[in-house]
Specification:
With 582 residues, the chain is of the alpha+beta class. It is built from nine helices and 36 strands. An eight-stranded antiparallel sheet has the order 1-2-7-31-30-32-28-29, with helices on one face. Strand 15 and strand 16 form a beta hairpin. The chain is globular, with a radius of gyration of 24 Å. It starts with 26 loop residues before the first helix and ends with a strand.
Length: 582
């Protein structure tokens, strides 16, 4: 969903439809671009519409199936978290016809869960979700423990078993070094200071966040989970994704809900956070809004596909192809609407380094790239050495920037940037006054084109969690299980974190789940637990979306979960938005 400008007060229910797109994206074919986010216009109309809709549609419902105004979350006897028999409370509210919000609180504080100090080298990334380096082999762990004992401290070395997933886990991840057991974080922090004084990096961690199999940890919780269910049999609104004012910007999920007049919203795909990895807010994987492909896939990773406003939701894997056609032979594109040379989460072309395969939270590099832009990106394209061709809405070259790139994108037009050895190729293909055609299309894993309609939304994610109704978590295939970095797997896949999950059940209902984490009030989910929770709601297909501090759910203009960042709700790249009845 592109940002919708304030509605005409004389036509309060009108929805602005995007232009029709064919499978192949070409500026010459389409003329004007869809409504975009660049103009900073008054939002009073949209805000008022959102508030009125939220007030009018708020309601409560019992958890009985077949409620006349909405459908509760798919049946689940109890969340598959912790031992059987834990207390669990559920509250179900109807937000609008066909949409329910189910809030679940399961478990009780576990007296076995304590604060401890874990030896770790903190990540240098500005991303607060980036895992520390906490695991090693046993000889290294033993040596660190000996060093700490020599400093008068009392460490312990623990091995870390991890649950079996579809393509990873089921083994001992490595060894960690920990010290102390405390009821209060302040006491752990005091010991951590002594560990650091001994010359060893460390963090204070809560053992309830460990992701060891239940037969090892046996945690009793608690867990706080929120579930949005959209039933296409009763739903007459819209389910889309919005990136806000432009791709090169971040807004909170709450802001995106307000901008779109949404009844409810949840954060969506992975995005660039560090300016050294690209443009903050840019999708770090495939993105399609209103049927327009604006960010290329991460080599075969899964994505959430929403068609026809929640009537054909699926989890699919994609590749893509793109090219420009001007003078001479067609030139292959490397990407769409991103900073040239930087490929967040990798999974690009064969010449990218260190890999062309997906590699989560890593920025691959390629000094020789062609990148196409449209006005979804921002008011201006990235600046730097290289060349850039400017194309108007009719596909005609109107300007060529020969030594540096960066500048305005014409209304309804596009640009193409080149760096490295692609510069002379682009300059040879473009001539002012001539046509330059840009083509980009998604393909399935078999190489067949995927048809996009104006009612297609796709957001990136991973790993896959459920396939054909069965547990199918694939962190290895999706770049979250690097063999040379067990600490990445430990922190990202194995340990409990806030999670956002989406999928579809056998009745065609789209289900969006958030699980709070990184607190004593709610432990979060490991990926194995996330898959089990998705399966417990009867999902036939499900995917993990961006989580950690990004995990956010909003209903009726209020946060309904507890985002984990210390600074509060995190600005994100895009969000899934549920809009009122049309």
């Amino acid at each position: 969903m592109t940002f919708r400008r304030p509605q005409d007060p004389t036509r309060p229910g009108e929805r602005r439809e995007p232009p029709r797109l064919s499978t192949t994206d070409s500026t010459a074919d389409h003329g004007a671009q869809p409504s975009i986010h660049r103009p900073r216009r008054a939002l009073a109309g949209a805000v008022a519409a959102a508030l009125v809709a939220g007030s009018a549609l708020a309601g409560t419902a019992s958890a009985q199936a077949g409620h006349p105004s909405g459908s509760p979350a798919p049946a689940s006897a109890a969340l598959p978290l912790g031992p059987a028999g834990l207390p669990e409370a559920r509250d179900v509210r109807v937000l609008q016809p066909g949409v329910t919000l189910t809030t679940i609180v399961r478990g009780v504080a576990d007296p076995k869960s304590v604060w401890t100090v874990e030896v770790a080298i903190p990540s240098s990334s500005p991303d607060p979700d980036a895992p520390a380096t906490a695991l090693s082999d046993q000889p290294t762990a033993d040596a660190v423990a000996a060093r700490l004992r020599a400093a008068g401290l009392d460490p312990r070395v623990e091995d870390v078993p991890t649950p079996q997933l579809a393509d990873a886990g089921g083994n001992n991840l490595g060894y960690r070094v920990r010290l102390g057991s405390f009821a209060a974080k302040a006491d752990a922090d005091a010991l951590r200071a002594k560990v650091i004084a001994a010359g060893v990096g460390a963090s204070s961690v809560f053992t309830g966040w460990d992701g060891e199999p239940d037969d090892v940890s046996g945690s009793t919780g608690p867990w706080h989970v929120q579930v949005l269910t959209i039933d296409p049999r009763k739903f007459r609104g819209g389910l889309d994704a919005s990136y806000g004012l432009d791709l090169e910007a971040r807004e909170t999920t709450s802001t995106l809900a307000t901008l779109t007049g949404a009844t409810a919203a949840a954060n969506a795909g992975f995005f660039v956070l560090d300016p050294k990895s690209g443009a903050p807010g840019d999708p770090a994987g495939v993105a399609v809004y209103d049927g327009r492909l604006v960010s290329e896939p991460t080599a075969g990773r899964p994505a959430l596909v929403i068609n026809d406003g929640a009537r054909n939701t699926a989890v699919e894997r994609f590749r893509w192809r793109g090219e420009i056609r001007g003078l001479g032979a067609p030139l292959p594109l490397d990407g769409l609407d991103r900073v040239p040379g930087l490929i967040r989460n990798c999974g690009g072309t064969a010449d990218d380094l260190p890999t062309s395969k997906p590699l989560h939270d890593v920025t691959c590099k390629d000094p020789d790239e062609l990148i196409a832009f449209d006005s979804a990106y921002a008011a201006s394209t990235p600046s730097g050495p290289g060349a850039e061709v400017v194309i108007d809405r009719h596909g005609v070259v109107t300007a060529i920037r020969t030594t540096t790139r960066g500048g305005a994108i014409p209304e309804g037009g596009r640009t193409v940037q080149a760096i490295g050895n692609q510069v002379p190729l682009l300059l040879a293909a473009a001539k002012i006054g001539n046509r330059l055609e840009i083509r980009a299309s998604l393909t399935d894993l078999g190489g067949h084109d995927v048809r996009l309609s104006p009612r297609t939304t796709i957001v990136n994610g991973g790993p896959e969690l459920i396939r054909d109704g069965q547990l199918h978590a694939t962190p290895l295939a999706d770049g979250m299980a690097p063999p040379d970095n067990p600490s990445q797997y430990y922190g990202w896949v194995h340990k409990r974190n806030p999670r956002t999950i989406a999928g579809v059940d056998a009745l065609g209902r789209t289900v969006i789940i958030t699980a709070d984490g990184r607190s004593e009030a709610s432990l979060g989910l490991g990926i194995a637990e996330a898959a089990a929770v998705a399966k417990s709601f009867g999902l036939r297909s499900a995917i993990n979306l961006d989580g950690g501090g990004s995990t956010t759910m909003v209903a009726n203009n209020k946060l309904v979960n507890s985002p984990s960042d210390a600074t509060g709700e995190r600005p994100v790249g895009d969000a899934l938005v549920i809009t009122p009845t049309r």
